Amino acid sequence: MRGVESLLVFALIASTKHGFAEKFPVNFTSGSKRSDSKDESKLSALIAKAEEHGKRIARLEVDSGHLWHDNENLKRENDNLKRDNENAMETVEGLKDDNENLKRGYEDLKREFQKLENDFQDLKHERENLTIDLRILKLDNENLRLGNAHLKFQLLESLLERDNAMQLQQEAIDERLQYLEATTLQIAPRTCQTFADLGVQRTGTYFVDPDGPLLGDPPIKVRCDMETDPVSTIVAHDSMEIGMVIVPCADPGCFRRRVTYDATLKQMVALINQSHSCEQQITYDCISAALSTGDTQNAWWVDRHGQPQSYWHGSGSTNHTCRCGLLKDCTDPNLLCNCNAESSKRHSDSGTITNATALPVTELRFGGMQLEEQEANYTLGGLVCRGQAPHQGNPASSCSSLRKAGNTRTGYHLISRKGGRLDVVLCQMDLEETDPEFQVETGARIPDRGVYFNAYRKSPWNIRGTVEFEGTEVNIGNAMDSNSGIFIAPFDGTYAFILHYLTNARTDSVELRRNGTILGRSYSRGENYRMSGQSILLDLKRGDRVQVHLENGELFSNDNRFVHFVGFLLYP
Asked: Residue ranges of the C1q domain (predicted)?
């Protein structure tokens, strides 16, 4: 039996590894023939089971390989999922940042909408006030109309009375008319644009008062062109004819034509200041008559300051030029004006002067015509101003800008200066702007924005050099850099600086410096802890640097913040 058992074990192993029937075919020896048939049956059964187990093990090995490959795929998918998760986290962070930016943008839009809403309400109130004023004007106009009708009726009745009574009544009527005319002039608006804003749509002649009602010169008669956009205010003059003949003369500027307007210069300047834009058209027609010959100016116009000008188009130039010269389309491309070609054919140079600081044209000068075939004439349009000048900021920059904005009341006003300050000045609006008393300085001034800081330390400092600070309680204007310990003046002015610190039983030397120069020093020596400090007033220029410099010792501090460096703007 022991031999049979060994044979069974061998058969099992062989069938498991290789397949018993294929690798080790069994041939029983004479010894096995002596075994009984029962053992042979058992051996066959065992061999069959061993072969079955081998097949199962082979299938398990295949399945194990598949599982290994599946496991590797799962690992790769897990790595991909990790990367996807990391990308998703980065995307979430980006979305958070975008959300914060959208929130800030929403708040900005909300504030802008609130500002627009406030501006709309202001405009609404202003329109309501203008509507009320228009109704009042209409009532006054109706009263004037009824008053005139009543006066006419009285006049017809007075014709039936005696001569003396008629004379008395006529005088009374004249006085009444003068009063009504004066009343009408007192409420004259500044420009035609104001009439349009009040609902007037008919083009015609009106009285306007550019320098303000009851101030300066009397109202002036102008033509309001309601068809243009914006509305035009036109001031006429005594040379409005088309093709005014120039009497030939040889010398430059020998022909002179002074221009007299239907308004005073003060009122025209006020109109220019009140308007969005102003212009004046001029045309020079010629036959062999040049505006300029070589370096000689034969013709020019004079501005409101009495200065000769030789540009005939645009907003200003120090050189002689015409419209075609600016557009580079003159008859002769080498010249600046058509008429400078001195052609025997008729030519013309037309332009529009838009320099508001030079208008109106006060005089025209022509010359350089000494030959019989030379001819020339000109056409000068009226002073045309359009629209309404934009309102100046609050506060304005000068009494002049206040007047342009419509403030014509004499008194003390705040005006903005460069360098970040507001000055109190006396504006005498009843004077000309060229009068030295028009704007009088008072010497009083205030800053238009604050500069304050309070820097501190919460730990000791013993490094020789500029003292650095760990933070600021207040830093309005952001002029103090606590990290570097340096204050940089944002604009000129007088500043105050105060330093407080705690010494710790040793010799200390601390300096206040401006641009590296020592201007103040604090020195202490002793046995005990004690507070020390220094204060100073400095006149600083924009960009000047002020810092605390530790020369010797130590500045002691802790969470109680014993070290403070304070500064603020006193006077701009």
From this structure: 444-572
For residues 442 and 458, membership in a common domain is answered with: no
In-domain check, residue 199: no
User: Are both 426 and 465 inside the same structural domain?
Assistant: no
Q: In angstroms, rounded to a whole number, what is the distance separating the alpha carbons of residues 440 and 426? A: 5
Local confidence band at 98 (pLDDT 50, 70, 90 cut-offs): confident
Are 458 and 566 in the same domain? yes
pLDDT given for residue 36 in this prediction = 67
| pLDDT tens digits, one per residue of 308-336 | 999 999 987 778 899 999 999 999 999 99
Residues 327 and 242 in one domain: yes
Judge if 466 and 376 occupy the same domain: no
Contacts 24+ apart (CB under 8 A), 418-426: 419/491, 419/492, 419/493, 419/542, 419/572, 420/447, 420/448, 420/449, 420/490, 420/491, 420/493, 420/572, 421/445, 421/446, 421/447, 421/448, 421/491, 421/493, 421/572, 422/395, 422/446, 422/447, 422/448, 425/399
Predicted local confidence at residue 19, as pLDDT: 46
Number of folded domains in the chain? 4
pLDDT tens per residue across span 233-246:
999 999 999 999 99
Inside any domain, residue 179: no
Rounded Cα–Cα distance for residues 84 and 101 (Å): 25
Residues with Cβ within 8 Å of residue 520, at least 6 apart in sequence: 511, 512, 534, 535, 536
Kindly state the tokens that stand for 517: 């120069």
Most confident of 159-173, 319-333, 388-402: 319-333
Residue 340 sits in the same domain as residue 474: no
| Same-domain status, 108 and 250 | no
Give the separation between CA 22 and CA 345, rounded to whole angstroms. Answer: 127
Residues 456 and 442 in one domain: no
Query: What's the CATH code of the domain at 309?
Result: 2.60.120
Question: Which domain covers residue 430, as residue numbers?
Answer: 399-447
CB 468 within 8 A of CB 563: no
End-to-end CA distance of the chain: 123
pLDDT tens digits, one per residue of 442-459: 877 777 678 999 999 999
CA dihedral sign, ordered 453, 454, 460, 464: positive
Please check whether residue 160 lies inside any domain of the structure: no
How far apart are the C-alpha atoms of 344 and 331, rounded to whole Å? 13
Q: Is the pLDDT of residue 178 over 60?
A: no
Look at residue 158 and give its three-state secondary structure. helix
Q: Out of 143, 178, 200, pick the residue that ends a domain.
A: 143
Task: Kindly report, residue by residue over 29-75, the tens digit of the pLDDT.
Answer: 444 455 567 788 888 888 888 888 888 898 898 988 899 988 889 99
With 0-12 / 13-18 / 19 or more C-beta atoms within 10 angstroms meaning exposed / middle / buried, residue 224 is buried
Neighbours of 533 (CB within 10 A): 16
